[in-house]
């Protein structure tokens, strides 16, 4: 398990995690041709191809525990994302969004909703999308303005969502909308909206790493009352729960990208002639590679710890995993950005060639610092968990009030 830097041998993981990592790595290696073909296709076609491949391989089976018998803990999801990101960004992207869409249905859906959507999501025959972001409401979920007006027998949605991953190929959208039970997060409800619903239109968005992204327009889009996911007014908690559980997996994907970048840079440095020797023989290059290895090891450990803590919380009701998840996501994604950037530097001009591995990684890694909570937002959230942080904030406000 050297490709995981020895992390899997730690007590954070069990033997079934190690077996999963070995099996997934071998499966990805056998499908390098599939990844190459999908990358050359239009974004929608490539995304659909990769999603079907994941479903056929059984890697999405845990999304429907009732039929697969797989429980799917968070450590397993993290390992899958690390393996997939190391192999191909489209595979990781499809796995991530499919998981993000299915998780709220698993945890908050009723029996009819689970039966309707989870089997197709688990085979890859249905594509899911998590439709939360708006121009003025990205990390700030409480700022969502998409309206869902109650009408006899259901709701009518009016407004938009944007930057929705898999938005152009999705068969079902998990949508956060405002139903008006109160201000901010109190008035939000989650809905499951099938693609093709009258009044719903998806418009493609081009992004720096070619993937399926869309702006969704809702114009008099009517959905039945049973489209509500969870309870009316409970949408904020449904979405927050999904995002908090997803954050360690984002960190794991960052580790996968970074590990690929470091491996490519190391191989290049060892084989590249320079100044009568090899590029690797230059002290500056050796020091740079050593520093990147240290950062990568630290990121992998933080991700493993956060996923382990989340699994313990799920099993035993312990608290505190949310801050660990946020910290792992921030550290791993920021470290991966630095590692990929330094890898490009070691490659020199060869790392800038369109389609080369360093160039692809450079475009792919950037988004991870933004989605599922931008680094700056998560740092502010982590600060709130520090000892005495809330007391200090109240004291500061009291002093400010008295000085007026």
Describe what this molecule looks like in 3D.
- With 404 residues, the protein is of the alpha+beta class.
- It is 55% helix and 14% strand.
- The chain has 13 helices and ten strands.
- The strands form three sheets. Strands 1-4-5-8 form a four-stranded mixed beta sheet. It has a four-stranded antiparallel beta sheet with strand order 2-3-7-6, with no helix packed on it.
What does the average pLDDT come to? 92
| Architecture (CATH level 2) name of the largest domain | Up-down Bundle
Name the CATH superfamily classification of the largest domain: Butyryl-CoA Dehydrogenase, subunit A, domain 3
Biggest pleated-sheet summary: 4 strands, mixed
| CATH classification class of the largest domain | Mainly Alpha
In terms of topology, how is this protein built?
Layout: H1 15-30, H2 32-40, H3 43-56, H4 65-68, H5 74-87, H6 89-108, H7 111-123, E1 128-131, E2 147-151, E3 154-165, E4 172-178, E5 188-194, E6 200-204, E7 213-224, E8 228-229, H8 235-271, E9 273-274, E10 277-278, H9 283-316, H10 321-347, H11 357-365, H12 375-384, H13 389-402
Parallel strand pairs: 1-4
Antiparallel strand pairs: 2-3, 3-7, 4-5, 5-8, 6-7, 9-10
Helix pairs in contact: 1-5, 2-3, 3-6, 5-6, 5-8, 6-7, 6-8, 8-9, 8-10, 8-11, 9-10, 10-11, 10-12
């Amino acid at each position: 398990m050297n490709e995981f830097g020895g992390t899997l041998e730690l007590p954070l993981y069990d033997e079934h995690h190690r077996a999963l990592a070995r099996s997934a790595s071998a499966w990805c290696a056998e499908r390098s041709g599939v990844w190459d073909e999908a990358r050359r296709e239009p974004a929608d076609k490539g995304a659909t191809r990769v999603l079907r491949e994941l479903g056929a391989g059984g890697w999405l089976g845990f999304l429907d525990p009732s039929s697969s018998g797989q429980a799917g803990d968070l450590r397993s999801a993290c390992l899958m994302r690390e393996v997939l990101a190391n192999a191909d960004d489209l595979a990781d992207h499809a796995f991530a969004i499919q998981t993000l869409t299915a998780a709220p249905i698993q945890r908050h859906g009723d029996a009819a909703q689970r039966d309707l959507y989870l089997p197709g999501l688990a085979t890859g025959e249905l594509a899911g999308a998590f439709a939360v972001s708006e121009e003025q409401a990205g990390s700030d979920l409480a700022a969502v303005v998409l309206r869902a007006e109650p009408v006899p027998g259901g709701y009518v949605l009016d407004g938009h969502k944007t930057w929705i991953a898999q938005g152009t190929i999705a068969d079902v959208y998990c949508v956060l909308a405002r139903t008006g039970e109160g201000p901010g997060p109190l008035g939000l409800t989650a809905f499951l909206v099938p693609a093709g619903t009258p009044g719903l239109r998806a418009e493609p968005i081009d992004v720096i790493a070619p993937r399926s992204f869309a702006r969704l327009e809702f114009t008099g889009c009517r959905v039945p009352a049973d489209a509500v996911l969870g309870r009316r007014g409970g949408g904020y908690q449904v979405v927050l729960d999904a995002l908090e559980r997803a954050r360690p997996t984002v960190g794991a994907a960052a580790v996968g990208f970074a590990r690929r970048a470091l491996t490519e840079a190391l191989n290049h440095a060892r084989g590249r002639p320079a100044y009568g020797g090899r590029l690797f023989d230059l002290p500056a290059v050796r020091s740079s590679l050593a520093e990147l290895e240290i950062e990568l090891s630290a990121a992998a450990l933080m991700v493993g710890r956060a996923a382990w803590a989340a699994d313990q919380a799920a099993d035993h009701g312990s608290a505190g995993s949310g801050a660990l998840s946020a910290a792992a996501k921030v550290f791993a994604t920021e470290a991966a950005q630095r590692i990929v950037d330094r890898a490009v530097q070691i490659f020199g001009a060869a790392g800038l060639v369109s389609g080369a591995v360093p160039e692809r990684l450079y475009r792919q890694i950037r988004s991870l610092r933004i989605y599922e909570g931008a680094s700056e937002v998560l740092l502010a959230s982590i600060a709130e968990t520090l000892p005495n942080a809330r007391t200090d904030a109240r004291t500061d406000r009291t002093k400010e009030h008295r000085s007026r």
